[in-house]
Amino acid sequence: MSSSSIARTRSLDHLVLTVKDLDATVKFYESVLGMRHTAFTSGGQERHALTFGGQKINLHVSGREFEPKAQNVQPGSGDLCFLVEDSVDEVAQRLHESGIEVLEGGGVVNRTGAKSKLRSVYIRDPDGNLVELSNETS
């Protein structure tokens, strides 16, 4: 952390995914990743989010985004990594059994995370966002 920075970042509160189909996105993240869908009102408008742990993913429907928004919003441009409680070996098996395509040859791969090495499986959500499901390793 630079002492000359304008702001010292502590953590990430939320991020935004722009989606084509709100219902398909909610169904995927609830059924595959166990997230909870919440609807709330902000500025007089109904909004939608997915929550898990202490984090939140706000959902904007393509063409009906809330302002301010990212400069070049586009469904399917995200690349997300989630640390999961379950063994990724078991997750990979459940994904195969559910008919969800596992990328990278269909199995678990080794990667580097923010704090440690990771064992990961890769899938895509309904918009084509890359979703990495990982366990930290020593």
From TrEMBL:
This is VOC domain-containing protein. Belongs to the glyoxalase I family. Residues 11-136 form the VOC domain. InterPro entries: Glyas_Bleomycin-R_OHBP_Dase, Glyas_Fos-R_dOase_dom, GlyoxalaseI/FosfomycinResist, VOC_core. Pfam families: Glyoxalase. Coiled coil: none annotated. Gene3D superfamilies: 2,3-Dihydroxybiphenyl 1,2-Dioxygenase, domain 1.
